[in-house]
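User: Please predict the structure of the protein below. I'd like the answer in structure-token form so I can feed it into my own downstream comparison script.

Assistant: Understood. Taking the following sequence of 77 residues as input:
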Amino acid sequence: MACEEKKTIRFGIVGCGMIANVHAEALRSLEGVILAGVADARKESAIAFAQKYDITAYGSYEEMLADGEIDAVCVCT
């Protein structure tokens, strides 16, 4: 039986509150997962969070999803 090709899942996080850091660390610990972006209604919060994790910051979840680089999201609001 042939092995299925494993796809890397690129996650985004919506919301930059305290729980977002827990989700970010959990995602970064998973095989086959890349933490790729964060969106927050307060762009400055998204930028600070993104700098911490070396990911892309978005000013809204709509902007993040429109980019097409995100496969799944954690809603942390």
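That's the full token string. The first helix runs from residue 18 to 28.
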